[in-house]
Amino acid sequence: MNFRYPIFLDLSGKKCLVVGEGHEIAAKVQTLVDAAAKVTYINPRAEPAIETLAAAGLISWERRDFKNHDLDGCFLAIADWKDNADIFRLAEERQVLMNAVDDPEHCRFSFGSVHRQGDLTVAISTNGVAPALAVRLRERLECEIGAEYGELLRMLKEVRAEIGSQVADFSARRALWYRIIDSDILDKLREGRREDAQRSLRQMIEDAR
Question: What is the CATH T-level fold of the domain 112-145, as seen in this structure?
Answer without folding.
Answer: Double Stranded RNA Binding Domain (3.30.160)
